[in-house]
Amino acid sequence: MDTALQSLLYAADDHYLSDADLDRFHQDIQSLAERIETYETLRDRELAILQPTADYLSEEFPTADPKLLERSVIHWINILRYSAMAMLLNDQAFLSQRILEWMPDLVQAYQLQDIEKTLYRFLQMQLKNSLSPEQLNLLKPYLEEAHATLLSVTPALQPAA
What we know:
Blueprint lengths: L2 H9 L7 H42 L5 H24 L2 H9 L2 H7 L3 H18 L2 H19 L10
Helix pairs in contact: 2-3, 2-6, 2-7, 3-4, 3-6, 3-7, 4-7, 6-7
């Protein structure tokens, strides 16, 4: 659950919310509506986003083992889905708990770093074409965290505290 909303609900256990708390609650509800819309867009356009990405990957790595390419595409399908859910829940830890604790080991074991970097770069282009700038900004911290964790790079954007 959205931790900001959750803390407001707990704060209201023994009293009414103040005007400032109600303003924060309203902002959090607005944010939730935007996150729901973004989640639905990703859900509905997943194939349109990922199919060109997978096709591009095959063109970029024509001599690579198709199973390794497929493995990377599956990684990013899962990352996109779990990032969307983490974004919906407004919970950075959700993504880490679900896949980022074990997936880097697979990338390392199968030596997929170059494939994963290329896939991520093209996925970013596809997302820019499929999402509004606002939607992309909601999702971006989660994808960057996944990218940084998988490939041991520092994310460009740090999520707001």
